Amino acid sequence: xxxxxxxxxxxxxxxxxxxxxxxxxxxxxxxxxxxxxxxxxxxxxxxxxxxxxxxxxxxxxxxxxxxxxxxxxxxxxxxxxxxxxxxxxxxxxxxxxxxxxxxxxxxxxxxxxxxxxxxxxxxxxxxxxxxxxxxxxxxxxxxxxxxxxxxxxxxxxxxxxxxxxxxxxxxxxxxxxxxxxxxxxxxxxxxxxxxxxxxxxxxxxxxxxxxxxxxxxxxxxxxxxxxxxxxxxxxxxxxxxxxxxxxxxxxxxxxxxxxxxxxxxxxxxxxxxxxxxxxxxxxxxxxxxxxxxxxxxxxxxxxxxxxxxxxxxxxxxxxxxxxxxxxxxxxxxxxxxxxxxxxxxxxxxxxxxxxxxxxxxxxxxxxxxxxxxxxxxxxxxxxxxxxxxxxxxxxxxxxxxxxxxxxxxxxxxxxxxxx
Amino acid sequence: xxxxxxxxxxxxxxxxxxxxxxxxxxxxxxxxxxxxxxxxxxxxxxxxxxxxxxxxxxxxxxxxxxxxxxxxxxxxxxxxxxxxxxxxxxxxxxxxxxxxxxxxxxxxxxxxxxxxxxxxxxxxxxxxxxxxxxxxxxxxxxxxxxxxxxxxxxxxxxxxxxxxxxxxxxxxxxxxxxxxxxxxxxxxxxxxxxxxxxxxxxxxxxxxxxxxxxxxxxxxxxxxxxxxxxxxxxxxxxxxxxxxxxxxxxxxxxxxxxxxxxxxxxxxxxxxxxxxxxxxxxxxxxxxxxxxxxxxxxxxxxxxxxxxxxxxxxxxxxxxxxxxxxxxxxxxxxxxxxxxxxxxxxxxxxxxxxxxxxxxxxxxxxxxxxxxxxxxxxxxxxxxxxxxxxxxxxxxxxxxxxxxxxxxxxxxxxxxxxxxxxxxxxxxxxxxxxxxxxxxxxxxxxxxxxxxxxx
Lengths: 419, 455
Hints:
The complex is a heterodimer of chains A (419) and B (455).
Chain A: H1 34-42, E1 49-50, H2 67-76, H3 91-102, H4 107-110, E2 114-119, H5 121-136, E3 142-146, H6 150-158, E4 163-167, E5 169-170, E6 175-176, H7 178-187, E7 193-197, H8 210-223, E8 226-231, H9 241-244, H10 246-253, E9 259-263, E10 276-281, H11 285-303, H12 308-318, H13 321-351, H14 359-363, E11 368-370, H15 375-385, E12 387-388, E13 394-396, H16 405-416
Parallel strand pairs in A: 1-12, 3-4, 3-7, 7-8, 8-9
Antiparallel strand pairs in A: 2-10, 5-6, 9-10, 11-13
Helix pairs in contact in A: 2-12, 2-13, 3-12, 5-6, 5-11, 7-8, 8-10, 13-16, 15-16
Chain B: H1 65-75, E1 82-83, H2 100-111, H3 126-137, H4 142-145, E2 149-154, H5 156-171, E3 176-181, H6 186-194, E4 197-202, E5 204-205, E6 210-211, H7 213-221, E7 228-232, H8 245-257, E8 261-266, H9 276-279, H10 281-287, E9 293-298, E10 311-316, H11 320-338, H12 343-354, H13 356-386, H14 395-398, E11 403-405, H15 410-420, E12 422-423, E13 429-431, H16 440-453
Domain Aminotransferase class I/classII large (chain B): 81-447
Pfam families (chain B): Aminotran_1_2
Keywords (chain B): Aminotransferase, Pyridoxal phosphate, Transferase
């Protein structure tokens, strides 16, 4: 670096200095999930199929804007103002959102024991919590299931919270490794923080049964663990939001003081609006006020206050009984189509005489199917059949249609039939 | 229209805090009283099984000073009350404003049934990014033409600053950033949380109510080589004091000679002078000398999109290859923060910027807002002069942008609030946007009284 003081202000003098600030910057690896769609878009093949990113598609393979959302947008267009929301976001939206997770008549809500802020979808909610955890439980770690959504690792890493893993998926059965999971819960030091997927586990689609959830909750009580629920698919898994919140309700009945990330990306199709909510259950209202104020202090130096548009859509829908009814119907419709595609894919594979068991396709729940395919098999699917998915073998069922399920089944059969 | 209009706080949380602002609310810390820790005995809360909260020790964070102003203002029943804390534009009637072009763009978006709400890419809306870079750097910018600029959509100015700061903390060799004294209260927090260490450079001179140029040059001159320097592109917040073009050139030379890295915060382009190009001159001066810099842009004020959180971070690099690698690393910062940015506001901006007639219309509405502010400055100055208020008030018309640093002390501010129901931050900063022709006389009376009756 030159130490010469410039004598004149000649333009371009700076060029002679070796101010190579960024020469050492390596190109970052592509995001494994979002990179799939990029590759898909670049593919000219007419047969290409995108079962990569978890965004819902209708049976024509088209993205969907829910009718309730369109109506809500019509109502709010030309809104009086676009002023800043408070740091904690739209109070109205948060209130409605908490009802979904905690129950309409939850005493926790009546007693104002839940600290909650609007967040930037599920990612933002998880990140805010991770930052909060770092600041107020600085010695804690986070236990993350194996596998999980890849970005979970990034989130807690960037929040500087050390990570550990716990057993979750059982590859042989393509189901839950409940015994090992319970061992990990028992062996973790008392008072550990755990990340749990409330329903429709991503990427496996494998959820604990209600009974298993009760056992997990009980063990958490024994160990004094903290449960942080990432609920990105409420309503989307079974078609019934109340049913999909069962795991959380079980924990609440047992008196756990949980944390919860909620997202409207999938279940309201508001992906790009980035609408979500972070909540933390506290011992009393005073504590909830304190915790909320601290969450806001973390949001302020990140983005000051959250975006208003998506929040307005949500509160317009959930605040109007007719629109809310319409939404519930549309969510069920999406969930039902997915369930239908699971059945179709499994039947197709069985009809093709696949030597493997595809029972897991219909047992797993939510948007994703953990097919069990290897990265090499996935690569073959992409290269030979122009089928795009993440290399962990995760299929986004939302990308499957009556039009492509046969093609997909055939391709999967071809790359897996030799075992 | 709005059949079920959601009720959320109407106060525009003014993001512009002075580093010198003292809390208006007394009890800002609320240490938990162990006796108040009670677990509700209702059946569903499982009082017998609930453990103690792991966040039991969390104390309540201090109130935001600006929100405190608005809270107090809202409580005041006086018919002559005036809120000059708010950092959001108001019309002559004191109402918030949605620009006509924004309404039209929004209608276009709503009516377009082919639009979907899918995820944007991590870096945001491509059109928006390109147009934003052109807006701040100039359509003919060589840096843009040579593909040396990477632009990512972020959450308004705050988000752009944070993403840029996180990138610097990870990839830049110098982790100290120099910020002007005073500056927006959120600046030190943004940079601190990103992992940079924050130092200050002299900026405002209370004696002249202008720029302490000597102090600025000295402090930047003694900064370690390579240090990052935060620069307000125009309409410095909270002082309204900007360097002249000549002074900017001297700053540029000094900074380049010391390899100091410029990080511009551009929150008022077009809003300050009324002209988009004029307000971008400082940034363009640096961008065209071949060196590197960062720019955080916000559309909160100049497009009135406050709550939509629309902004962009541009990094001007030496080469196109570097810009591409830098962009890939910016994605790694963004993904674990919020995955991808919100689509609505950026779509509105892109719609306006890419359409000739909408763009034209925007520049006219923007100039009208800026002109109204400038006219308020003139009116207030004239009103004080006609009252013979002691002191030199020329800084009111010399300062630029939304805010005026009046020079009133906190005692005088308290007096003005109590006796005249004027609400402002205790550092004497007023938002000109909150004034109207109708209310200027009342403010002038209040200032006159404060200056003559309170030490």
